[in-house]
Protein 1
Amino acid sequence: MFKKRVKLVSRMAIFMTLLLVALFVLIRFLDPFQDDYWSVIFDFIGSFHPVILHLPIGLWFGVLALFVLHLFQRERVQESLVFGSALVTLVFAIFTFAAGFVLYLGGGYGSGSIAFHMYSSLAFLTALIAFVIGFGGGFGSLYCTLTAISTSAILLISGHAGGVITHGEPLDRAPWRVFAARQAKAEALALGKTGEGHVFADLVMPILNEKCIACHGTERAKGRLQMDSYIDLIKGGSKGLAYVPGDLSASLMITRMHLPLEHSERMPPAERPQLDAGELAFLEWWVTAGLPENQLVRDTMIPEEHALYVNSLIGNSEEAMQAQALKMRKNALMAAYAEIQAQFPGVLVQSVQNDAVFELSSSSMFGHNEEAVREALAPLAESVVRIDWNRRPLDASWIHLFAQSKSLQVLNLTDCDFSADALSVLLAKKNSLKKINLTGTAFSDRHIDHLIENSGIETIVLTDTDLSKSGFSRLISDLPGTQVISNFSL
């Protein structure tokens, strides 16, 4: 009875695998799913691949252990136990391979990076079937041992290939490679400063590397589009040509950057870092100019309006050094902002997209450790342009942090308690301050001098405070260009 069941199950396994292989070959070479609709669906289904991929790996090594024990302890480890475990492993392996192939169809990975992993996984599936059939069919210990060894070896190879896709090649982190890459980067930077650099490699690729390659590189190629070389840009992807020299409207890399943020085809997507105005303007000029890949910077008449962007990457003039310092500072601020978003989501938001200026709100602080938040905010304090601190204690630690914001434009302290000294510290050297809201606070006539020191303030809200009528009149007199809103003006 057991032998008959083994034959039936083996035939079913062979049929399922052959069907899967046939579908694999058909879809792999005909590639019928190129629409974004299918890409979204396949991305969702394929996302289960990382969830279940460890199951057949663990199960197989369990089967291997049972098989070895069966060879030496046949009476204690029954043949049916080994066969049943191997069959369960095969079922999970089929589902895992199917999910991985669907993930590939979603266009999230380049064929160059995933092909070896995909084919080695198919080889593992084939070897596993050979073991299941051989063990269940009583082909002998030698055959089963050889197929078990082959299956294990192929699994290790396939697993390594998958690990490289996810985590990168381990040897790329070897010290000699890291130091060599740093040296090459330094030499390329020095070459760019002499004007010997190339427009594409030294001015265009930095934008693509920072904003596009994560989804359109060798490892991942959404929409079959790679953007890590000049040839790949011209080749385009499943949706068309990314770069058409001299034609902005035909270059998808430009047209999709101008779509609304909420548009499904917007590039980069809303949740990804966006190009700033200087980067987008330079990229548009480069496409319009239709320059070849080997165009040298020194032989190119780059318009003056792109000087700031160009200087931020290459050049050794004083202006270039300043621009490079500003870019480095912006990158450092954005890196610190990303860390805060990861640790304390929503506490700090960008005031202007793609610009290193931020807004802080006390309402988003609930549930977070204030001391830890203050420590994380410290590197960004100077770049905070708006503070909404409503109905929350304003102690000395927060006052010290807020005082560092030299670019503060809006300060909202509704229903906060503070001393005259605290207000003095907060308002010191705030030349950019445009609006302050002190509604419901203990603001009184003794605080007026601190407001008058900031003559550039456009709006002051003092409703429900201890301000007297004479104090209100003094503010109106000393700040004629400021809109003062209080109980006396309503």
Note: Confidence is low (pLDDT under 50) at residues 191-195.
Protein 2
Amino acid sequence: MRSPHAVLDPSAVPTPIMHGMAGALANTLSIAILYPLDQIRTLQQAASSAPSRSGTSSLQLLSPKNIPLLYQGIGSSVEALLVSYFVFFFTFAYFRRLRLRVSGKGKPSPADNLISSMAAGVINVLVTSPLWVYATNKRLGLANRGDSFPSFLMRTEKWSDLWKGTAASLWLVSNPVVHFVVYESGRLALLSREPARRRGFSGVEDGRPVEEVRVLTDRQAVVLGGVAKFCATMATYPLQLVQTILRAQGSSQASLSTLGCLLAVYRRSGVFGCYAGLQAKLTQTVLNAMLMSVLYERILKLVHHNSLVFSAALKKYRSKLAE
């Protein structure tokens, strides 16, 4: 058993780039699998600004004739997701590690997770907003069928249009903040209670045992991920609806402010209108959070293990060359 006063070997801790890779791959795979549910949510949110389409239900959209519509824009959405989640997970892990280095603490507190999540969320919004405007218009069929992201940029008359909905997106930073504070705090609490027998060793490097990176079980990751995402979604859903409307270039409310758009939807459809598409969103979000959490833990462990193996092989090769 490792001494409680022993210093954790740096190689036993996944780096920000590992967190970035694991987060990007896990979220992209999960969203791609559940894409039809997310597309239903997007269509119903956009329809909240067009009364003639407001009666479309999830069951109607799930009919076989709508299969092409349910996968419309999946390529651009996956591209945006891959970039967005990599930026978020990388910056989240980087800022958290930076705070720990400055504070000298051994493990992150909920406050560390909160600050790191907010910083990562703001950077992610500002960097990836043009990608999401493009993806939203591809989803809703408002962009030309053959449009690539560069050609979409060239056709955009005002570059400021590429950051439409940024105010709503910045407010939506609270969504991953709530999710990651709940998830990471719960994760650390669960891992701190793990029995010593589950804290095995992944091998020996330079004559020292290297501790295996600890991860949640599939059941723990599923439950914790689902609960965290459910809470975050309920708190921020009206802002997600406004974000979709503002990003859609063909929307009649695309020129409104975040608050103006939200008030317009409220006047038109009441409180329920502010939660258009919530059923599909909740189903997709909770399933995605559960699936993503499992994939994230598995991919992070795989990436970390392969990194250790590669590092050991490289050192062995260099030592042979030095002989």
Note: Residues 278-322 form the longest helix (45 residues).
Protein 3
Amino acid sequence: MAGMSGVRLRGLQAAAHLNGHLAVCKGFDEEKGRWLVQLENGEEKAIKNDNILQVLEPGTCISLKNGEVLHITIGRVSVLNQMEDEVREALLSDMDQFSMTHELRAELNCPDGWPQFSVVLTGGAKEVAAAHKALPAVLKEYGLEIPGPSAAAAAAPAEAEEGKDEKEEKAEETVEVEGLVMKSMERRERPSRKR
């Protein structure tokens, strides 16, 4: 695991109230044999490797320093590695332009040895919030679609309407993950084996 990667805490017994909390991993403490993580409230903890969930859902946000730093999980590093050099350079150029437009620092965060990458927004809390809303549109041009705040707000009324009809009619749902399209269907009952 690498420094400055997003993680979720789990399985803690002495501090069970922290289970499920998001944090940013700052690195490994050799003396303690634990990972040093910073929680969203700024508190730092030393956590065992077994108590850290290393892969987060795309769009997961970790807000630090009262909203002045926002760590947004985007997806797997393999997606970036598969980009043509020209496309990746264009993405980096667009991120620089995005930084200037929103008057903050926006950077791709790809820690060594980490399977996911993120975008880290750093600036004033208002600028970071505004840039967070605009980020999905910039990334979409490169096939990096993440659930953004604007998409979530638009989907909320539609989801409420769908919830009414969901019980009456179960439609097939397709989910795309890293180019693999899967169809979600009803559970099938399988006969038990008798020995």
Note: The domain at 56-154 is CATH 3.30.1370.10 (Ribosomal Protein S8; Chain: A, domain 1).
